[in-house]
Design brief:
Length: 98
């Protein structure tokens, strides 16, 4: 992470380690408020829920390829419409044939 990055987390104790890093760390305490202005962590929680659900289908993935599986989850999350996914895949195949 770059030193000028901003990170939003909930109040989970494991995130205490982030307080000593060189970036800005904001916590959102769900027991007091769920959203602070426009800042919330629902998007990343949604992503991880979808990623875990997708990765569970494989009953484990090789450690050395985990980043590729995670990248696929990211792509599926950002292109959630099946028609959009199909269009993107067709474009990639077409580019690969040229």
């Amino acid at each position: 992470m770059k030193p000028d990055s901003i990170v939003y987390t909930d109040s989970f104790k494991s995130y205490n380690a982030l307080d000593v890093s060189e970036f800005t760390h904001y916590r959102i305490n769900h027991s007091k408020t769920f959203v602070n202005d426009k800042n919330h962590i629902n998007g990343i929680e949604n992503f991880w829920n979808q990623a875990k659900r997708h990765l569970r289908k494989f009953n484990g993935v090789p450690k050395e390829h985990f980043h590729l599986y995670l990248k696929e989850c990211e792509w599926r999350f950002n292109h959630s419409d099946p028609k959009s996914q199909l269009l993107q895949l067709k474009q990639w195949v077409k580019q690969g044939l040229n």
